[in-house]
Amino acid sequence: QAKRAGRNRYRFFLPSMNEGALERLGMEEDLRHALERGEFELHFQLKVDTTSGNMTGAEVLLRWRRPSRGLVPPAEFIPIAEETGLIVDIGAWVLEQACRKVVEWGERLPAGFRLGVNLSMRQLQGDIDEAMRDALAATGADPARIELELTESMLMEDTERAIGLMDRLSAQGVQLALDDFGTGYSSLYYLKRFPIHRLKIDRSFVSELPHDRSCAAIVQATIALARSLGLEVIAEGVETTDQRDFLRDAGCPECQGYLFGSPVPAEAFAALLEGRRQQIGAS
Ligand code: C2E
Ligand code: MG
Ligand code: MG
Ligand code: MG
């Protein structure tokens, strides 16, 4: 009996189990210095007009170049950044960098181009409207070029406060999109009250198009809902031409996904903009 308990206790401290906790702790420690050490970078993924394929905007996607570990995707470090509160400073940095890119790329950007920036729950609990104002003031970026991507679950926490924040952000001239739409639990009542410009249909519905009948119905209904509420709509995670064709026929004006391009570093995205300009110049 004692032997078994002893063995169990031993098992609890198995090195393999410690490794996970240590790795988590190491990541947290490294994350604390990542910003000052300049280890974050932004990648950019195209958004396109479903029918013409023309560029309508891009989404900023954060990456962490962790020394000796390579490029870390947000799913691995954003949760830790959220828990520790580090996301507030990281998020402010992302906002300012995004604004800098808008200024830097200037007239290479097509008319109506929007750069989408993801926000986290923690940022919305803080003074995100001030962070936005600071980023715009520091860079001189045109607020109409910035679109903030929020999720339903972020907005359902303290809805009245969130609506106030969204109103103040909207008043600054930035656009607001509801990301991963359909996966959260916002009511239609709130949807009407949120001062948002756009719904972003979640990848989980798009990936089952066109064969899954429920996903097809949900996507069509979302497009109709957006229309009747006077909102724009975009589909994320578009990977195949069949999906694109379905979305086009369903009247979804805008798409984003690997079919049109993966997220790429700033230099590669700038080259893409340059290529587009040369194309226009040649035609
Ligand atoms: P999200 O905002 O829904 O971003 C879309 C994710 O889907 C991105 O993953 C993107 O690379 C990926 N994706 C794009 N097209 C396709 C496709 O055709 N197929 C598939 N399978 N995936 C596609 P990523 O870059 O790993 O980002 C994951 C999430 O991390 C984002 O989801 C967003 O919630 C969060 N995130 C990214 N950057 C930031 C940031 O700067 N701040 C905050 N707070 N969150 C961020
Ligand atoms: Mg997003
Ligand atoms: Mg999304
Ligand atoms: Mg998503």
From TrEMBL:
This is EAL domain-containing protein. Residues 24-277 form the EAL domain. It comes from Aromatoleum petrolei. Keywords: Membrane, Transmembrane, Transmembrane helix. The chain holds residues 526 to 808 of 808 of the full protein.
